[in-house]
């Protein structure tokens, strides 16, 4: 799990687990939403290619991000998470009046990763949100499923085999 302060998903789940309001600084901003397993898959492919195909990839920078078609605003992401987290009450989602210096649009260009590593996100936005929400809900539940993380890793590994 991501537990950093001032990060959307950790801040939301901490608040929701306590039935508190969520403050969205920039609800209309877009971010490259993806699951950490997709990014780690990219790093592993890069490491393999560094050993096999060093001339093509050595010293090169690679981005591992979702397709531009899959972009969501902060508010849409939170609402989609709320579909699986019944404690979420959207009337509690408010805009913060303070000004933050943040970009409205963040995107990653992953064309080089696709071209040289044949990498792309294996999880679509819906599945990413479902897995993340389930993981955090389980973390905050009274009876945790000790196998959930392993099951999610197995699910992702099976996606790679297809």
Give a short overview:
By secondary structure, the chain is mainly alpha-helical.
How would you characterize this protein structure?
- By secondary structure, the chain is mainly alpha-helical.
- Helices cover 48% and strands 5% of the residues.
- It has seven helices and four strands.
- It has helices at 8-17, 36-52, 54-57, 74-82, 111-117, 125-140, 148-161, and strands spanning 23-24, 30-31, 72-73, 94-95.
Main sheet overview: 2 strands, parallel
How large is the share of residues in beta strands?
A: under 5%
Oligomer, anyone?
single chain
Shape: globular
What topology emerges from the helices and strands here?
Elements: H1 8-17, E1 23-24, E2 30-31, H2 36-52, H3 54-57, E3 72-73, H4 74-82, E4 94-95, H5 111-117, H6 125-140, H7 148-161
Parallel strand pairs: 1-4
Antiparallel strand pairs: 2-3
């Amino acid at each position: 799990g991501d537990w950093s302060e001032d990060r959307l998903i950790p801040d939301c789940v901490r608040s929701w687990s306590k039935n508190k309001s969520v403050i969205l600084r920039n609800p209309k901003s877009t971010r490259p939403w993806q699951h950490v397993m997709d990014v780690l898959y990219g790093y592993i492919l890069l490491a393999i290619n560094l050993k096999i195909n060093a001339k093509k990839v050595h010293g090169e920078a690679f981005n591992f991000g979702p397709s531009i078609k899959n972009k969501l605003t902060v508010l849409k992401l939170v609402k989609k998470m709320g579909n699986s987290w019944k404690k979420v009450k959207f009337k509690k989602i408010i805009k913060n009046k303070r000004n933050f210096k943040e970009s409205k649009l963040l995107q990653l260009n992953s064309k080089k990763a696709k071209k040289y590593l044949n990498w792309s996100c294996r999880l679509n936005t819906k599945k990413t949100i479902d897995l993340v929400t389930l993981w955090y809900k389980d973390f905050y539940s009274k009876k945790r499923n000790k196998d959930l993380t392993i099951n999610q890793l197995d699910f992702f590994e099976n996606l790679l085999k297809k």
